[in-house]
């Protein structure tokens, strides 16, 4: 089970390979960096799960996706300031026996997320 993420680039119709992502644990206004990684060709963490079932703890987390950096690297002309820069998703884990999948569908102008399986 555990925690995973996946990013799809809806502008180009492909996985967001090369996007930088950071994972934090949160407590109130405090955030502690757990890991940073660059998405692989499938738009996923190259090391697999962000947390496996044994390591995932009940609590609150944040994923931060460098959306503007990714689209700039793809050669997309973005206005200054960008409409979306970094997308930050705060979410909670209540039941560590379940899998928490946090997908992001993103373009330079919009994003959507949900709890996947």
Structure keywords:
single chain; mainly beta; Immunoglobulin-like; 1 helix; 4-stranded antiparallel β-sheet; 8 strands; 117 residues; 4-stranded mixed β-sheet
Evaluate the radius of gyration: 14 Å
Q: What portion of residues is helical?
A: under 10%
| N-to-C order of helices and strands | EEEEEHEEE
Question: What CATH architecture would you give?
Answer: Sandwich
In CATH's first tier, which class applies? Mainly Beta
> What's the number of structural domains?
1
CATH fold field value? Immunoglobulin-like
Structural class: mainly beta
Number of helices: 1
Strand order of the largest sheet: 2-1-7-8
**Uncertain spans:** none
Mean pLDDT equals 97
- Number of strand segments: 8
Distance between the termini: 9 Å
Overall geometry? globular
The named CATH superfamily = Transthyretin/hydroxyisourate hydrolase domain
The largest pleated sheet is described as: 4 strands, mixed
Strand percentage, roughly? over 45%
Structure description:
There is one protein chain. With 117 residues, this protein is mainly β. It has one domain (2-109): Sandwich (Immunoglobulin-like). Helix content is 6%, strand content 46%. The protein is built from one helix and eight strands, in the order βββββαβββ. The strands form two sheets. It has a four-stranded mixed sheet, with no helix packed on it. Strands 4-3-5-6 form a four-stranded antiparallel sheet. The model has no long low-confidence stretch (mean pLDDT 97).
């Amino acid at each position: 089970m555990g925690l995973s993420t996946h990013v799809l680039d809806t502008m180009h119709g492909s996985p967001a390979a090369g996007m930088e992502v950071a994972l934090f644990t949160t407590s109130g206004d405090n955030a502690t960096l757990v890991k940073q990684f660059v998405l692989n060709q499938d738009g996923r963490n190259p090391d697999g799960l962000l947390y496996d079932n044994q390591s995932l703890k009940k609590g609150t987390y944040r994923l931060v996706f460098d959306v503007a950096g990714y689209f700039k690297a793809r050669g997309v002309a973005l206005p200054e300031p960008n409409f979306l820069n970094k997308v930050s998703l705060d979410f909670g884990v209540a039941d560590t026996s379940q899998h928490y999948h946090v997908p992001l569908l993103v373009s330079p102008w919009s994003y959507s997320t949900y709890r996947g399986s």
